[in-house]
Amino acid sequence: MTIFSRLDCQSLNIGIHLISQTQ
C-alpha cells in the first residue's frame, strides 16, 4: 500500500511538471 501511494505521488508530481512545462 505504501509503495502504491508513493508511486501515485510521483505520478502526480510528473503531471504537475508536464502542466507547468505546457504553460
Structure at a glance:
This protein has 23 residues and is mainly α. The chain has one helix spanning 2-22.
Give an account of the 3D structure.
The chain is mainly alpha-helical and 23 residues long. Helices cover 91% and strands 0% of the residues. It has 1 helix and no strands. The protein has one helix spanning 2-22. The radius of gyration is 10 Å and the shape is rod-shaped. The model has no long low-confidence stretch (mean pLDDT 87).
Keyword list:
1 helix; mainly alpha; 23 residues
Please render the helix and strand layout as text.
Elements: H1 2-22
Look at the structure and give the mean pLDDT: 87
Structural class comes to: mainly alpha
DSSP summary, beta strand count: 0
Distance between the termini: 33 Å
Form type: rod-shaped
Sketch the major β-sheet: none
The radius of gyration over CA amounts to 10 Å
Order of helices and strands: H
Pick out the low-confidence regions: none
- What amount of the residues lies in strands? under 5%
Q: Figure out the total of helices.
A: 1
> How much helicity do the residues have?
over 70%
